[in-house]
Write a structure and sequence with these properties.
Elements (H helix, E strand, L loop, with lengths): L1 E4 L5 H6 L6 E5 L2 H11 L14 E5 L12 E7 L10 H11 E10 L11
Parallel strand pairs: 1-2, 1-4, 2-3, 4-5
Length: about 120
């Protein structure tokens, strides 16, 4: 099982999903969940199967999310950490340690910190 916090439209949710991996996308609002569900309803999973067969999107607060099935095998964080105020990053780390099973994996893509023209 995998988790994609702040999954947006669900592109990564679909890409990570397949017959052998169930993926949960996590969003904070019903509007965001609706956008992800709309995309996932016709998307293909990473193995070519219908994504809708192996994905779900839930509305929940990342900092209190506690899956009934227990910790995830994989968490894919694509700039989710970057969107959190720096003062809450310790909470992010503590929550990640609860969400990932021992021996599980986290993939985190972040923007570099610095004075760059145009962002992040």
């Amino acid at each position: 099982r995998a988790l994609v916090p702040g999954c947006g439209r669900g592109y990564a949710v679909a890409a990570l999903a397949g017959a052998n991996r169930k993926v949960t996308g996590l969003e904070i609002s019903e509007t965001a969940k609706g956008a992800a569900d709309a995309y996932l309803s016709s998307a293909k999973a990473g193995d070519g199967s219908a994504a809708v067969d192996s994905v779900s999107v839930v509305v929940d607060d990342f900092f209190t999310h506690s899956p009934e099935e227990g910790p995830y095998d994989l968490v894919y964080d694509c700039t989710f950490l970057c969107a959190i105020p720096p003062s809450r990053r310790g909470e992010w780390a503590a929550q990640m340690s609860k969400l990932i099973r021992p021996g599980g994996e986290i993939v985190s893509l972040v923007f570099p910190i610095g004075d760059y023209a145009g962002g992040p």
